Amino acid sequence: MSxxxxxxxxxxxxxxxxxxxxxxxxxxxxxxxxxxxSFSANRDLFWDRLSSDPSLFLLYLKFYSASKDRDENxxxxxEEMYEASPDTISKYLVEAINHPIGHQMKDxxxxxxxxxAETTLSRLVTSKLASKAQVSKNLSISTSLLRxxxxxxxxxxxxxxxxxxWLTKTVDVSIDSEIRKILGFTPLLLAHSVIxxxxxxKLFESLVTENxxxxxLKKENNDLALYLLTVCRVGESFSRALNPSVYESAQVxxxxxxxxxxxxxxxxxxxxxxxEAKVSLDSCSEGLSQLISDTFESDFTELVSSEKKVRKxxxxxxxxxxxxxxxxxxxxxxxxxxxxxxxxxxxxxxFSKEIFPASSFNNFVVYLFDPLEAILYPSLSLGxxxxxxxxxxxxxxxxxxxxxxxxxxxxxxxPVRQSIxxxxxxxxxxxxxxVVVGGFGEKSRVGVLYGELSEGATEDPIKYFKAFQMILKxxxxx
Length: 478
What we know:
By secondary structure, the chain is an alpha+beta fold. The chain folds into 2 domains: 2-305, Orthogonal Bundle (Hypothetical protein af1432); 318-476, GAF domain (Beta-Lactamase, 2-Layer Sandwich), CATH 3.30.450.40. Helices cover 57% and strands 10% of the residues. Strands 3-2-1-6-5-4 form a 6-stranded antiparallel β-sheet, sandwiched between helices. A hairpin with a 4-residue loop joins strand 1 (361-370) and strand 2 (375-383). The chain starts with 6 loop residues before the first helix and ends with a helix.
């Protein structure tokens, strides 16, 4: 009974009969190529054109794999796939063409087109890196396309779900986690479930899965699998840079993938990949090359440049190392906002809404120094103030513990923690509070950061305060 099946099993049954579309024109052209006497000389071009159509290539892979021993050496299997005779290739290609298709290329939505473009970029990067290491082209292409299979099947068989997630998700949430929330499985889980019935080489089952067990692969000395996993992830990272508004990690992904690619091929590699991707998309279906904008190369370069700036800012805040991992991530996010925005509102929003609540401080006040008026005035305040309210502090005004501490910190080289007695606005008498204060500015002081510690705060707050002080300085441009 279908009612007894899990969401994953039901989806597997559905997508197996409702396969995503391929170009009939491309399929017929490929069959024609196999009949030409020049095929052997153009073998590379044939496989490039077949792999430009992910749906058709994967169907070919399905029927080819059924004829092989799944325990066979994958290198041998996919070298034989590449070197097969035109008659053998034609046999499996015809089987692929005769496989039921539930969708048509002419009905592609914009989101489905973008999915195809991302798959193309990922596959090209993976293939280039694998070829550099003399790994079989068809083996690397197969791995890349199989890891992208789940997203493609979901994009075509659950189009409203996929489009809704794509267009409305917040940047803090991954597409995979949103798909799991709605459908009950992730794209990689779906891909893994689909290929289990293909009798495909065992290598793929270890790579096309949600959390590949890298420890086991290392223990088994499976260098091939580890390398394929690495280059596939580089390809997937590169492809996410196509849509930075959808993928929160796009900037980091662009930087990391560029470092990997530039080391292997030089800095001009992005331009070459873009050119080949456009050709590949048009080979699949004419006009698809427009999916990769003419500004993609410059946009990609800008992402890499922005990430370099973020990393530089992050590295110049030595106090970040003392923060909890989750807070470190928020600092990185804030520095990203600083680099992207000339207006400090976005970075300050992240600090006030996400970083500050995770601290051991009740409040913070940024006092800026006005030398003409000889005052410190509150420029930014965060948190609750049950004792001292933010107010203008004259440098030479009435003396009290609060005044003396804040004014004297303007000249201090390091923040200090101190307990002071303050009139309690909510009760009679005095209240003892623990505060940390420190000045802003390197060569000349421009202000002071003041923070009241929460009651019961146990850790040494100075290191945390210094980290907060530096990121506020960067956010405010002090």
